[in-house]
Amino acid sequence: AQSVTQLGSHVSVSEGALVLLRCNYSSSVPPYLFWYVQYPNQGLQLLLKYTSAATLVKGINGFEAEFKKSETSFHLTKPSAHMSDAAEYFCAVGVGTGGFKTIFGAGTRLFVKA
Amino acid sequence: DAMVIQNPRYQVTQFGKPVTLSCSQTLNHNVMYWYQQKSSQAPKLLFHYYDKDFNNEADTPDNFQSRRPNTSFCFLDIRSPGLGDAAMYLCATSRPGSEETQYFGPGTRLLVL
Questions:
Q1: Nearest 5°: CA angle at B104, between A66 and B23?
Q2: Is A92 helix (H, G, I), strand (E, B) or coil?
Q3: Cα–Cα distance between A110 and B112 in angstroms, integer?
Q4: For the segment B55-101, what is each residue's pLDDT rounded down to a tens digit?
Q5: pLDDT per residue over B11-40, tens digit each?
Q6: What are phi and psi of A62, to 5 degrees?
Q7: Which residues have CB under 8 Å from B14's CB, separation 6+?
Q8: What is the pLDDT averaged over residues B44-55?
Q9: Contact criterion met (CB < 8 Å) for B102 and A46
Q10: Chain A interface, mutation test: which of B99, B108, B109, B110, most A Cβ atoms within 10 Å?
């Protein structure tokens, strides 16, 4: 069965500092992996996705994530945090066809300090 | 712009009073999903439609039903809302050949009094 574990329910960084949000997955087949961002009282916005092409995936807003099969990880990074990055971030794994099923991690809330 | 629209954004209902949440899309996607997201939790899939085929998750309570009268619209019916059903309800769509990419609406926050 597929699952996702996000390490740290809350992460706090200073503006301009490196952002690192950790995600580990378990999947019996090569997975699709995603990072979504959710701002308060809004829906989810796709930041980036891994679909078995390049292991380093670049997304929107300067975020990127690296797929490491040996570590079953898909950590999200951004070199320099901005105040507008403060939000909830969800890592997810996707499986199946004919109605794709996305399984979300518990989420990590990112705080950015001025 | 093509998008997923959810109305209303906020819905208040009374304990036990049926309520319907609506989702519409201009993307012409054939798959539509409903997720429930409780406070500070991950979204949880309730069910999805692949065209007209309804797929219910095994642990979705019977209190939750859905209708999809056409490609563009999908409804979530909660027959007898309980206090525990207060949550954000998210609608999403995807298209054939790229089903891994889901497009989410802004959500409807349901409050049960």
A1: 165
A2: strand
A3: 29
A4: 999 899 999 999 999 999 999 999 999 999 999 999 999 987 777 78
A5: 999 999 999 999 999 999 999 999 999 988
A6: 80, 5
A7: B81, B112, B113
A8: 92
A9: yes
A10: B99
